[in-house]
Hints:
The protein is mainly α.
Amino acid sequence: MPRRLSRSNEERNTLSINETYNSLVSIINFSFQDESYLGANFPALKKDEWQKIKESQLTEVDIYTSFDLLSSIEARFTLDYHIRCEKRFRDEITKRFRELKGKLETKSQRVEFERDILEIWENCYPQENIFSEIKSAFRYRHWIAHGRYWNPKLGRKYDFTYINLISANIDNFLYHYTF
């Protein structure tokens, strides 16, 4: 008998990730306005060098929180997959998920987000361009996850604001198509 998902219940939502992002940006901006902080932590640097450090830290916050948002997108879809398979809903997505689960179990394989889950959603809702956006954004996620050592060909500049927009669109989409 297949095992059920052992869920941690620690997944993050868009709101909590936004709060983290805003807090970290505020802390960095506040810290770099305090000359006593800068003098104590960066005594040999000039103001223009402080600015470069600040921009570097803000960029890192953007990258980390973007990664967190993209990971939460994957978690939302993957949890939806598991819930649908366990609850045995009667809609088309659930039927396809259960077929996939049966095939994967006979091969002792695990479901993959992009290859399996997104493909089924995209096949059931081809009119939705959100899936191509997700796939494209996940190239950015892979670049972050694997150490950022190559020059990615992403087709656009990804940042927290844009990925947050994608995440909000996904929230809206899933609101209409999940139980």
